[in-house]
Amino acid sequence: MTGIAIIGAGIYGAYAAKKLSSVPGLEITLISKKYYINFVPSVPRNFVTQDLNGYSRALEEVFGDSVRLIYDEAVSFDESKVTTRKNGDVAFDVLIVATGSILSREFELPDTVDSAIEHFTKEFEQVQRAKNITVIGGGISGCELTGELAHNFKDEIAKGEKRINLIHSSTNVLSNNEVDSVRRSVQSQLEDMDVKLYLGQRATLDGDKVYVGSEEVPTDHIIWTTGVKPNTPDSPLEGLKNEKGEIKVKPTFQTLASPNIFAIGDCVNFVIKAVAPLKKWNSVLVDNVIAFAQNKPLTKQVVPPTENDKPTCGVSLGPEHGAGQLATPFGTFPMPAFLVVQAKSKTMFKGKLSEL
């Protein structure tokens, strides 16, 4: 038997574990701090509904006895073993690192479903009490959370009882990964939802006060959606990571540091990290891990994204609004808003994990 260890039970790690567990001759060990998988793009909706039903699944329910589950933190790894905090060393022949990123406090979920629901409940109670909520960071996560809050509290906002602020350092919301028409559409929709936008300046804090330049932004409660970093365990392997702490990978998802170690998702050094290519990327990863385990050539590759690429994506702004774009061989084009609402905004991928 060939031992395959996977660190991280996010959507990439869990998908790979599920596919590889059905391959004869492979023994899969999945190392996860969390006892469940949660679809991270759904978190802005979880934040206001405080409901994980349909948005999460227990790992034991997903895998049964097909995968060895170790609920622990991976502290470090080398070419042959993963060192965990409580369970010691876990030996492997092939390793997949799918540890994702370190999210802001509000988006970083606890280890159990019950504690995650408690987390969302406490967060929601704070935004319920606050009259002036300020979201700092206008990327996709920040815009989506702002849209959820603006939709949920639309009556209070209309009566002047609550105010939602969004501060973003760029002069337009989102990032250069989104086409201009999508950025304009998201900005316009947020304005129509009476969100107060502060663009082109960074937020500064002075005690409990928030400023953009010299202007104070009325704030009772702050939510940060900035500062995402790769979540990579320590390793003595030379040349494994770049200066940002991202794992350097080839188009085969093999690391540059060791051919028997693969990595995928937010922890790798791809310029664009998105869920849109999930199935394609995982298919390449799984096929190459199988080929490596069977001493066969690795024939599958992906084309690493560049800074100029604008990938397929959708931006949900609550269950009734959204904007998005579709990447094609001929360019990236805006999608009709109703398609984004149907594909993403209405459900925020509720039930998506049933595919595992």
Write a structural description:
The chain has 356 residues and is of the alpha/beta class. It has two domains: 170 residues, 3-Layer(bba) Sandwich (FAD/NAD(P)-binding domain); 161 residues, 3-Layer(bba) Sandwich (FAD/NAD(P)-binding domain), CATH 3.50.50. It is built from nine helices and 22 strands. Strands 5-2-1-9-19 form a five-stranded parallel β-sheet, covered by helices on one side. A four-stranded parallel β-sheet has the order 13-12-11-17, with helices on one face. Helix 7 links the parallel strand 12 and strand 13. Helix 2 packs parallel to helix 5. The mean pLDDT is 94.
Characterize this entry briefly:
Belongs to the FAD-dependent oxidoreductase family. The protein has 356 residues and is α/β, with parallel strands linked by helices.
For the CA atoms, what is the radius of gyration?
21 Å
Q: Which bin fits the share of residues in helices?
A: 25-40%
User: What's the total number of strands?
Assistant: 22
Strand order of the largest sheet: 5-2-1-9-19
* CATH class assignment of the largest domain: Alpha Beta
What is the CATH homologous superfamily assignment of the largest domain? FAD/NAD(P)-binding domain
Taken together, the total number of domains comes to 2
Q: How far is the first residue's CA from the last residue's CA?
A: 24 Å
Strand content: 25-35%
Largest sheet: 5 strands, parallel
Unreliable spans: none
**Proper CATH architecture of the largest domain:** 3-Layer(bba) Sandwich
Number of helices: 9
Mean model confidence by pLDDT: 94
Shape: globular
Helix/strand/pairing category? alpha/beta
CATH topology assignment of the largest domain: FAD/NAD(P)-binding domain
